[in-house]
Amino acid sequence: MKTKWKADPAHAEIQFTVKHLMITTVTGYFRDFELDVETEGDDFTKASTIVFTAKIDSINTNNAQRDTHLKSADFFASDEYSRLIFEGKHFKKHAANYLLSGDLTIRNVTRPVEVEVEYGGTIKDPWGQKRAGFTLEGKINRKDFNLTWDAVTEAGHVVVSNEIKIHCAIELVKQTQTLTVAEQQAEHAEA
Known about the structure:
Number of helices: 2
CATH superfamily: Lipid/polyisoprenoid-binding, YceI-like
CATH class: Mainly Beta
């Protein structure tokens, strides 16, 4: 039986870090996002769907001027490309943890990405809901996704590094309705 899971935004963070002037790190977040997962029973290694979307306009680096620049055509071009999408393909055991591989799309450019995942476990909360926790770590090269804006200081220092580190803490909540395969196919046909 297919089981649906959704991220609990109150207990999840989508974070990224980037080097600034190659001497310090700037941290940012996507505040508006969704994560939908479908598994066979409660087995995440048998996930048939892992889809994450984040609204680019929800980017927050604790600096309004920088956020506006990130939303501009120099970076994400949020007027034209309103969201980024990750579609997971494989979630498999790897040593003590897991690897999640899939396709990340930013600015209409899709590239394969692999992140390391620590599975925190699955529990029933005090209100009877089943929850699963995960921590994800990975990195991408921003230029692979046409985020190519560059500047160099007079001393020759790069303003923004190409490497973006990704850190996510995700709490999924099992949805009360479990679907049979036929129900799932019907639901996808309607979408």
